[in-house]
Input
Amino acid sequence: MAKLNIVLADSDELFLNHLTNYLLEKINTFEVYSFTTKESLVRFIEDKSNKIDIIAFSEDLMDGAITLAGAPVKVLLSDGSYSEVNDFKSINKYQKAEKFVSGLLLLYAEATGRVEAVTHGDKNTKIVGFYSPVGGSGKTVLSVAAACALARRGKRVFYLNAEKINSTASVLNRAESGNMSDIYLNAKTKGANIGLRIMANKYVDMNTNISYINPAESSLEINELTSAEFKKILKEFETLGEFDVIIVDFDSEFNKDKIDVLSAVDKIFVPFTGDSVSVSKIDLFMKELEMYDELSDLYPKINLVLNKAANRNNPPISANVDIKASIGLSTVFGDIGSILNSGESIVSVMSMITGNI
Output
């Protein structure tokens, strides 16, 4: 994407110099023009030969010329105090420079529809599902552990919880803002830019470096999505090119809609335990996939995972399919907290799964 022309206007010369130097030295996205007086700012704006994409100004330099300017983004530099300027969006100028820049780019992307302004767009994204017809198989634990292990290996990972009762908030710390309600609404809205809403609502957990979005305001909202709408969301994640891997944590329902959604996933890890009930359910599940032609596309995507394995002997699976990974009992899986704080040890523990992604 070509560089954006940004006008910074603030009478606080120390702040302005600091921000301008940061943008020029650290960010390769902007051509920067900075002003500390209203007169010089107005002259620049009124010169029609100057192309402007973003104007960020302090309240004391507000002028009618800003309102009339053709810049897609005009944003008030706020210091957190009360302002009488209500016609513009604002951005807190006293925050980390990285977050300030991200906020500006997001405002620009929202105003212009140019999602590439806020994405890397260079990733060949894989969508990896964790699904099991077996309750208590450790599906969510393994999906989070896989996300942590991949992030530890330097991969850009997004954790997407697709359970009817979304457990994201109990798995990862609740983000400051944004939730899946916005994503679901846009999936139902014709012509809406779902990718942009993903970028606007996503949050990166600083401890694990995993990206995620807060759960929807109501757990019932995901029930209102059609399988086609959920597949549209997955496709947008792929199209963004922002992530190496999307980890999707599905619930245990098995119906036509679930089959349709699973068909949009590149790989499906199916955990089960070695007890007779769990083995019996996996046998039935695999035989269902073999039996019906409409399920045949899922079969090669399936990767069985024996979880909580107490010994090296795999349980007897009558279906003609290999067990791709065997995960032994480990203190790392004591609870979600221990997984999130496991450090480098999670990489080796999950290698049999992540090695197949």
Summary: The domain at 126-354 is CATH 3.40.50.300 (Rossmann fold). The chain has two domains: 4-117, 126-354.
